[in-house]
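Write out structure tokens for Histidine triad (HIT) family protein.
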Amino acid sequence: MSASSPVEDCLFCRIVAGEVPAEVVHRGDTTLAFRDVNPQAPTHVLVVPQAHHADAAALAQDDPATLARLVDAAREVAAAEGLDDGYRLVFNTGAQAGQTVFHVHLHLLGGRDLGWPPG
């Protein structure tokens, strides 16, 4: 199964298309990174594929190369943000895990001590 077309009512598809404003911090050929509007750390950036995939599992099945590109884009953003002491990458997959926008997105969190276990 290949990447699907943009989904009309998907917030992140609309951000990728430029229909909804976002503070974009990185744009790649297949990825987009922008600041989370409800940050949970001093640095909280969402990295999304430009093509719509519902969650990380769907992306891994449909387009594993883009999954790798998300992580690489997060690495680039972390370096640009000065997160030399470390950062956390998180995928929430499914409503029970806290996913609220069903367009796969990788959370990049940093800029403070991040305890374990998380929430």
